[in-house]
Structure formats: structure tokens, C-alpha cells
Write a structure and sequence with these properties.
The chain has about 625 residues and is mainly beta. The chain contains five helices and 37 strands. A hairpin with a 2-residue loop joins strand 16 and strand 17. The protein starts with 8 loop residues before the first helix and ends in a 6-residue tail after the last strand. Strands 2, 3, 5, 7 and 9 form a five-stranded antiparallel beta sheet that branches. A five-stranded mixed beta sheet has the order 4-11-10-6-8, with no helix packed on it. Strands 12-14-19-16-17 form a five-stranded antiparallel beta sheet, with no helix packed on it. It has four domains: about 200 residues, Immunoglobulins (Immunoglobulin-like, Sandwich), CATH 2.60.40.10; about 120 residues, Immunoglobulins (Immunoglobulin-like); about 100 residues, Immunoglobulin-like; about 170 residues, Lipoxygenase-1 (Sandwich). The structure holds calcium ion (4 copies). One calcium ion (CA) binds next to loops.
Length: about 625
């Protein structure tokens, strides 16, 4: 299933940065360095309390659903450039930064064109036939990638509508997907490709499921398991990549130590360590050490995964000195590979190159991992890192850059390359990384940026935030013909905190009878509304967070909606009736469709009727403003 054809080229552009490190034969400085504790898995934590009174949703920043996607190149630039430019492909060139976070289509249409497929023209209801029932990527080496084109064939005689293509919760962030903007309307006898890719960044196994919702009459929820494994391979990394000796008085000797590490997951053996100019070189290999013991005379040098050796090089200044190359030959399954370290004399500064990591698509409310571990200093090592937001969504107060222990480090020099932030709201986050090395002149000279799009995956995503703390607001989504209820644990028509809360998504997938609200159990009352097909949960709305003390967000997600007019309301549940700007954003098919702000004071136990979401057809959804307010019915005590 491995695809290498040209049509994949544009899709591969996404990963060109990654893969330039992989297949180029010169693997001397591939840096992996991911923290294996952050594999992007979402822990099942459904045991968390769901009581409104003790709702813990104001504490953000569990790292258990952190995302790890890094993968910028850190290939050994043997040109040792000192021109002060980062060579990384600018993010805009990879992903065009559409407001909705979609990857540019214009150039890539060729690979997303519909292609003919076989169908039964007499079949009078929509039928989706995927080209694979499982997406099996096989074994992929770390930082390499494998792509699969999953073709969705309309095998019927009538139009087929695909309204949602989502990774199920818990799917590893090392899988990527790419497709045309939703909804996809596929004519009979045609197939539309969904491009899937797997880029393992660590040794930890990855799994997941792609969920495709369509109007297929028999199987509206198609699940495609994602299967992959990490290929065993050795990988050498050298630090520094340029051993730079400063000029000195003739006859004076100085020495430098180079560390050679096996950062892969298989052992290897270094069969050769020599300076290219041999006896003619002004440089000499003085010692080779492993675990602090000299192994100078014990070639070949075996390196298990995570082991390293150090090479001490001595330089004696002469009237005229030349550069040299340290050749390092090491064994892989495919034969011998050569890595090199440039050895030179010069007094020019070579500044550390920050690598802020590969652009990411995440879900709103994800904890994003910023991985700067691929930053490097060509002639030394990186000594400190500084992360700062350049851009983030308005009201994303809790999107703050922290270290892995939860300390705020935004705008501060820190020694560890990894950081995290809470993608509190949908939208675009741009983060800047600068680095420091041992050369003072280099501090803050080089800058790199990473863009993270928190993009709602649900067909309908309604986001609520407000301005004043301790002023509890609740978002509600009401089924066609239904009534707003302030505290409706038993309500089947108003999805809100009392019946629809999945606690930050962690109770997902819901138990067979639904997501219990805080006052219910899976077998008792307070079951989540069961809309659409009875006993099927994929077509039910769910609230992913109920915030009480802070300023939101609260989000209701709804895919595969029924036809009709859904009402969005906001209950002022508790707190002072004071000036409190309340904002509702409505996303449809991942795109911001409408934004409403309430600046009037609405008393407690009143609600704001925000808008209608009119589902005219599975693919035609309209948002219409209401903007009125009224008292809410308060149940008798
Ligand atoms: Ca992994
Ligand atoms: Ca340097
Ligand atoms: Ca609330
Ligand atoms: Ca249902």
C-alpha cells in the first residue's frame, strides 16, 4: 500500500521537512528527542466526578491528552551557514493558513479529483464503499512517513453526501488526514480520496480510528481502524555537527569533544571513525570513550539504542591550516551509512537554529505539546529556549505556555526544549521559539514559528465564552420544536450541562445508553439526549465542558444533525447580574459561520436566545440570528 507516485507530491509537501531527514542517506544529525511520555494518547479518565458543584473543569492543563507532533528537519547542514537565516521552509509555504485552518486546495486539486469507480446504477439509496476497510500503514521508521489514499466510492445510483471525516477520540496525533472541504457530495459511480498519513515520532505504538459519517442508508457511521507499527532502525545523531576550533598561536593545541548517539530503536555498530585527511590533517583523533572508558582501540564500536560514544579531537595551530571531515560509518539493515562532522578553524559565530516543530491540527481543548528538541547549534549545543505567542484567539486567556510541570514559562529562558499550552478556543495559535547558545552574540538572533490550528471536527460546533468570572453561563442546543430548560436532567430535547456533559470529552465514547449527565447514571435518569437514530450515539449532541467559575469555554458538538431548526440559547445560571460580555461562536463544517456578542445585562435565571441553526439538508446548514432574552422557567423546589 506504500504510495510513492507523483500525485502524492503535494500532500508530501506537508512532510517534506520530516522526510528530508529520512531518505537522504546522510543521517548524521537526525534528532528525534521526543519525550516518550507524550505520545498523544488520551487516557480514559471517565471516573472523574461529574457533579456541577465540584466541577473541576476550571483546572486546565492535564497533560494526558497532550499532542506530540514535531518533525522539523535538523539535518546536518555541512555548509555551516552563518548567514543568520533559518532554512526551514516557512510554514505559510506548507499550509496556507486559510482562516478555517484548511490546507490550501488550489494547488492540490489534482490529487483530490474524483475518480470513476464501479457502482450499481439501479441502487436507489446512497451507498458508500471504501477502498479499504482498514488503513494499514505497515511498519514505518521514526520520522519517516507512509501515505494511504482511502477512496470513498459512491457505489449507488444516487448522490452520496459525506458530512464528517473525524479521527475518533484517542486517535494518535501521529496520524494525519487531508481531504476536500466538507461536505463531500459524491455523484454515483465516483470516488473521492481521503489522504491519510502516518509519521511516527517515537517508539510508542500508535492506534486510532477514522470515522466517516454519510447518508449511506445502511451504514451512516463508517469506522476505519488505523493500523501501524514502528520499524526498527538505528539512527545516529552527532553534536556538534561542526567542530569549530578558534585560531590561536602557532603550535598551540586545543581539543573538542563530539558526542555520537544512537537515537534509534535498534542497535548499530560504528565500523569507521577517521579524519578524511589522515596524516595530513592538522586535527587528530585523540580518544574515543564510552561510559567514560577509553575504547580507542576496540573498533568496531557497538551502540545499542540510546547509547553514545564521545570522540575527542585535538587541533594544533600551524601557519596554514585547513578544514577536515570526520567520517563515521555505521551499519544498518540496508548496509553501511556514512555520517560526517565538519572540523574547521574559524572565529565567526554560528548561531543556534531554533526549530519550533511541525505545524499541528488539534481539537479545541487539547493540550498542545511544543517540541523544540530539534533545535540545534551547528558548532555547539543549545543552552536555552524561549517560547512566546505571536497570535492566539481572542478570549483564550488560559492558553498560556507552560513547562511540563505546569509552571508558566512564556517569554522566559528555560533549559528544556518542550513546552505545552491549552488550546482553549477554536482558532489559530502562532508560537515563536528563540534560542540561546554559548556565543553571546547569538542570543535571540534566530527565530522560528509554529502554527497550531484548533479546528472543530464536528459538523456543528457551538462555542460559548464570557467576560466575568464567577458568573456561570451555560450553553444549550435545543432540538427542533423543543423548549429551553434551565436544569433539564430529564430533558431529551435540550442538550446542556445537566444531561449532555461528557466532561471535556473524556467520557467519550458514551456508554450504550448515552452520556450520563451529572445527576444521572448510565442506567438511571439524566441520560444524554438520543437524537437521530435511536440507540446510535454518533448522531447525538454532546457538551464537552461545563465551566462554572471561570469564563468558559463551553462547547456543544453535533455531527450528522437531523433536519430542522435548532435553537442555541445561553442560560445565566448563577452569579451577579452585572455587565458581562457573553460571546457565542458557531462553526459549521469546521468553519466559523457566525459570531454573536451579548452586552446587555441578563439577570440570573434568564436566558439569551442566540440564533437558529437551520439544517435544510445534511449539507446545507444556515445560521440565523435571534438575539432576544426572557426569564427561564425555574422548577418548583
Ligand atoms: Ca507514537
Ligand atoms: Ca553556536
Ligand atoms: Ca456553565
Ligand atoms: Ca442517536
Amino acid at each position: 500500500m506504500r504510495q510513492a507516485n507523483k500525485l502524492m507530491f503535494m500532500f508530501l509537501m506537508l512532510f517534506v521537512v520530516v522526510c528530508s531527514s529520512c531518505n537522504s542517506g546522510d543521517n548524521s544529525a537526525i534528532i528525534d528527542g521526543d519525550d516518550p511520555n507524550y505520545d498523544g494518547d488520551v487516557d480514559d479518565d471517565s471516573s472523574e466526578s461529574a457533579e456541577k458543584e465540584s466541577d473541576d473543569s476550571t483546572v486546565e492543563g492535564d497533560t494526558e491528552d497532550s499532542t506530540v507532533i514535531d518533525g522539523d528537519e535538523s539535518e546536518n547542514d555541512s555548509d555551516g551557514d552563518t548567514d543568520g537565516e533559518t532554512e526551514e521552509v516557512d510554514t505559510e509555504n506548507i499550509i496556507d493558513g486559510d482562516e478555517d485552518g484548511d490546507i490550501s486546495e488550489s494547488d492540490e486539486d489534482i490529487i483530490l479529483e474524483s475518480i470513476p469507480c464501479s457502482n450499481n446504477q439501479n441502487l436507489s439509496y446512497p451507498e458508500l464503499t471504501p477502498s479499504y476497510n482498514t488503513a494499514d500503514f505497515g511498519a514505518v521508521a521514526i520520522m519517516d512517513s507512509n501515505e494511504i489514499a482511502l477512496e470513498l466510492c459512491n457505489s449507488s445510483g444516487v448522490d452520496l453526501s459525506v458530512t464528517s471525516v473525524q479521527f475518533a477520540r484517542g486517535t494518535s496525533h501521529e496520524y494525519y488526514k487531508y481531504h476536500k472541504d466538507l461536505p463531500l457530495i459524491i455523484p454515483p459511480g465516483f470516488a473521492v480520496p481521503i489522504l491519510l498519513s502516518y509519521v511516527p515520532v517515537d517508539n510508542l505504538a500508535d492506534e486510532g480510528t477514522l470515522v466517516i459519517l454519510s447518508d449511506d442508508a445502511n451504514n451512516p457511521e463508517l469506522k476505519i481502524p488505523l493500523v501501524s507499527s514502528v520499524q526498527p532502525a538505528a539512527l545516529l545523531k552527532t553534536v556538534p555537527q561542526i567542530a569549530q576550533f578558534h585560531s590561536a598561536s602557532v603550535g598551540q593545541t586545543t581539543s573538542k569533544t563530539i558526542e555520537i548517539s544512537n537515537i534509534g530503536n535498534e542497535s548499530t555498530s560504528i565500523t569507521l571513525l577517521e579524519l578524511a585527511k589522515g596524516q595530513q590533517s592538522p586535527y587528530t583523533i585523540k580518544d574515543i570513550r564510552k561510559n567514560n572508558l577509553s575504547v580507542f582501540n576496540s573498533s568496531p564500536w557497538d551502540l545499542a539504542a540510546d547509547e553514545n560514544i564521545t570522540v575527542e579531537i585535538e587541533f594544533q595551530m600551524a601557519d596554514s591550516v585547513e578544514d577536515d571531515i570526520l567520517n563515521i560509518d555505521w551499519l544498518t539493515e540496508d548496509g553501511t551509512k556514512r555520517s560526517t562532522v565538519n572540523v574547521m578553524v574559524g572565529n565567526d559565530a554560528m548561531c543556534a537554529i531554533p526549530q519550533a516543530g511541525m505545524d499541528q491540527f488539534v481539537d479545541p481543548l487539547d493540550n498542545v505539546l511544543l517540541n523544540g528538541s530539534r533545535s540545534y547549534d551547528p558548532n555547539g549545543s543549545v543552552q536555552a529556549y524561549m517560547w512566546q505567542f505571536v497570535k492566539k484567539p481572542d478570549n483564550a486567556f488560559r492558553a498560556i505556555i507552560k513547562d511540563m510541570n505546569g509552571n508558566t514559562i512564556e517569554g522566559q529562558w528555560v533549559e528544556t526544549p518542550n513546552a505545552t499550552f491549552y488550546a482553549e478556543l477554536s482558532g489559530e495559535y502562532v508560537v515563536q521559539l528563540t534560542t540561546k547558545d554559548s556565543e553571546e552574540i547569538c542570543t535571540g538572533v534566530e527565530v522560528d514559528f509554529v502554527t497550531i490550528w484548533a479546528k472543530p471536527e464536528s459538523t456543528i460546533h457551538v462555542q460559548l465564552v464570557w467576560e466575568t468570572q464567577n458568573n456561570d453561563q451555560d450553553i444549550h442546543l435545543i432540538r427542533p420544536g423543543g423548549q429551553h430548560v434551565r436544569d433539564g436532567a430529564e430533558s431529551t430535547e435540550d442538550c446542556h450541562y445537566a444531561n449532555c456533559n461528557t466532561i471535556n470529552g473524556r467520557a467519550f465514547p458514551c456508554p450504550p445508553r448515552g452520556c450520563p449527565g451529572p445527576y444521572g447514571t448510565a442506567t438511571g435518569s439524566g441520560q444524554a439526549p438520543d437524537w437521530g437514530i435511536q440507540e446510535q450515539r454518533f448522531d447525538d449532541p454532546f457538551l464537552d465542558i461545563d465551566d462554572i467559575e471561570m469564563k468558559g469555554p463551553e462547547n456543544i458538538n453535533y455531527s450528522a444533525p437531523e433536519l430542522g431548526d435548532f435553537k442555541v440559547t445561553v442560560e445565566h445560571y448563577s452569579g451577579e447580574s452585572q455587565q458581562n460580555e457573553v460571546k457565542v461562536l458557531v462553526f459549521v463544517f469546521g468553519v466559523l459561520e457566525a459570531s454573536y456578542t451579548l452586552t446587555d445585562v441578563i439577570p440570573v435565571k434568564h436566558h439569551w436566545n442566540v440564533c437558529w441553526i437551520k439544517v435544510h439538508s445534511p449539507t446545507d446548514i444556515e445560521v440565523v440570528e435571534i438575539n432576544t432574552s426572557e426569564p427561564s422557567e425555574v422548577p418548583e423546589e
